[in-house]
Write a structure and sequence with these properties.
It contains three helices and seven strands. With 174 residues, the chain is of the alpha+beta class. It has a single domain, classed as Peptide Deformylase. It binds 2-phenylethyl (2E)-3-(3,4-dihydroxyphenyl)prop-2-enoate and cobalt (II) ion.
Length: 174
């Protein structure tokens, strides 16, 4: 399956992703394609809507201390529901759908989610640190929310200006 990234300001990123109801080969094929796609594009998290499949599915693969990503650390999360959030933390986030822009975002620093795996089995996950941040970032995608939506008014303005300038430069070199 060939995947392509949907980039801001594409309106498709604003859709609400739909619940996964059928855990079939079609879903598995998508998940199997999302993982290598995320690694090749230097991502640590990817929601299905970012590759134009607005369903409540996401993959995460956090790097270890050496910055290496291992296939055994792949997390596939379907239909997640947040059941606990605690504390506050700030992290400089980026997003494959908002290339080359990074900015501090405030999130909860510890969360619990209920979710389903690729076979529809129900799971619970307690997360803190980078994993908790990544889960919140990816779950935002399911609601059509991007990390830039969580910036202060002035930082958002600064982003829009910088991003527009970058888009212009991109067009020139095409
Ligand atoms: C979400 O983000 C995230 O601009 C995943 O040029 C962010 O994988 C989770 C990326 C922060 C936890 C903390 C961004 C790759 C990847 C870019 C990503 C880029 C190339 C972002
Ligand atoms: Co993102």
């Amino acid at each position: 399956m060939k995947l392509t990234i949907v980039e801001y300001p594409d309106k498709r990123l604003r859709q609400i992703s739909q619940d996964v109801k059928v855990f079939d080969e079609k879903l598995h094929n998508l998940l199997d394609a999302m993982h290598p796609f995320m690694i090749e594009t230097n991502g640590i998290g990817l929601a299905a809507i970012q590759v134009n499949h607005p369903i409540r599915a996401l993959v995460l693969n956090l790097p270890d201390e050496e910055g290496e990503q291992h296939p055994e650390n792949l997390l596939e999360i379907i239909n997640p529901v947040l059941t606990r959030k605690e504390g506050e933390t700030t992290y400089q986030e980026g997003c494959l759908s908002v290339p080359k822009f990074y900015e501090d975002v405030k999130r909860s620093d510890s969360v619990t989610i209920n979710y389903q795996d690729r076979h529809g089995n129900t799971k619970t996950l307690d997360a803190d640190g980078l994993l908790a941040i990544a889960i919140q970032h990816e779950m935002d995608h399911l609601e059509g929310i991007l990390f830039i939506d969580r910036l202060s008014y002035s930082r958002r303005k600064k982003f829009e200006k910088e991003y527009k300038r970058m888009q212009k430069e991109k067009k020139k070199t095409k």
